Structures are given as structure tokens and as C-alpha cells.
Amino acid sequence: IISLRADAFIESVADVTTGSVIAEGAPLVTLYSPEIAQAIAQFVTDLRSEGKQRPGARQRLENLGIPAVVIDRIAAEGQATVSIPITSPRSGVVLERMAVEGMMSEAGDTLFRIADTSTVWVIAEVPEAALMEIVVGTGVRVSFRGLTDGPISGRIDTIYPEIDMMTRTGKLRIELP
Q1: Rounded to an integer, what distance in angstroms lies between the CA atom of residue 68 and that of residue 65?
Q2: Is the CB of residue 67 less than 8 Å from the CB of residue 29?
Q3: Looking at residue 121, what is its pLDDT?
């Protein structure tokens, strides 16, 4: 979940929509926040007056959710900026995009939901009688009718502790790369 820790105005939104695959570090939004701008101005003032970073000023920016890359760039340039770029913290698929150019976002509002798809789960139903032979961590092969590449290797991650009384099956969670 990508959200802000301060009230802000969304200045621009990258060409990212629901279903887009994005890379870690890809730009999402550029924003202006009076609270963040004030913290940046204090950080730059400290740099100029003392010639070094004060841990408290940097920590305040980190607490407001400013990426370390942006803080380092501000420190290197010695210039205060009012527009802050927010980037994707990880690679994945955009599940939800709530950010709209020009909107006012309050602290805690969700701007994006991004799912890391490097590992996916398959929930499999197994007959009750076979559950006693299954162990967490066991390697398995899963095949799908729609995939012609053949079975995919994975491992059993979780055995759920309940039995469906109608079908007499238990559920397993299998991790697939």
C-alpha cells in the first residue's frame, strides 16, 4: 500500500493504471505537501548553516515517508524542493490506483496498491485421507489446463487446520515462483 504520512496535493501521476506491471523505483506520483516542504527547508537550512546533516532533520524527513534517494539528492544539491517524487518500493502489479492529478490526499489515504508477484500462491484441496502424508516444505508440481509449458515446481507452504465437512477435503497453500 502506497500512502502518505502528511497531507499533500498530487501534482502529477505517472502513466500507471490498474493492471500495469511496474519495476521497483518506477515513478508513481509527484506531490506537494506544506509539512514536507517545511521539513525539507529546515534540512537544507541546517546543511547550509552547519555544513553537515543533522540526524534529527533527516529523521523527520524519513518519518514523513520521503525516500532516502530523494533526501540524499537534496543533501547533495543543497537545494530545497517543493515537488517530491514518490516511487514504487518494489516491483509488481498495480492492483488499485486511487491517485488522481490535482487531488488532495490526507495522511493515511491509499494512493496505490501494488502486489509483488515474484511468488504466487495456489490453494489446493486435498482428500482428507491424504493429509496425513503431507508435510510442510515438501516439493510439489502443479499443472494448469491453460498453461502448455508443463507442470510448475513449488513447495507446500501451509496446511490449513480445517476440513471441509461437505467435501471431506483439506486445503494446502503452495508457493510457486
Answers
A1: 9
A2: no
A3: 94
Q: How many residues does the chain have?
A: 177
- Taking the C-alpha atoms of residue 33 and residue 85, their distance in angstroms, rounded to an integer, is 11
Q: What angle do CA 150, 153, 114 make, to 5 degrees?
A: 100
- Cα–Cα distance between 167 and 91 in angstroms, integer? 38
Among residues 174, 148, 176, 143, the alpha carbon closest in space to that of 159 is found at: 174
CA distance 165 to 153: 30
DSSP strands (E only) in the chain: 2-3, 8-13, 21-22, 27-32, 84-87, 92-97, 104-105, 110-115, 120-127, 139-142, 152-164, 169-176
Q: Which three cell numbers stand for residue 96?
A: 488499485
Residues forming a β-bridge with 139: 155
Rounded to an integer, what is the distance from CA 30 to the centroid of its chain? 17
pLDDT by residue for the chain (177 residues), tens only, comes to 999 999 999 999 999 999 999 999 999 999 999 999 999 998 998 888 876 667 788 899 999 988 888 888 888 888 888 899 999 999 999 999 999 999 999 999 999 999 998 899 999 999 999 999 999 999 999 998 888 888 999 999 999 999 999 999 999 999 999
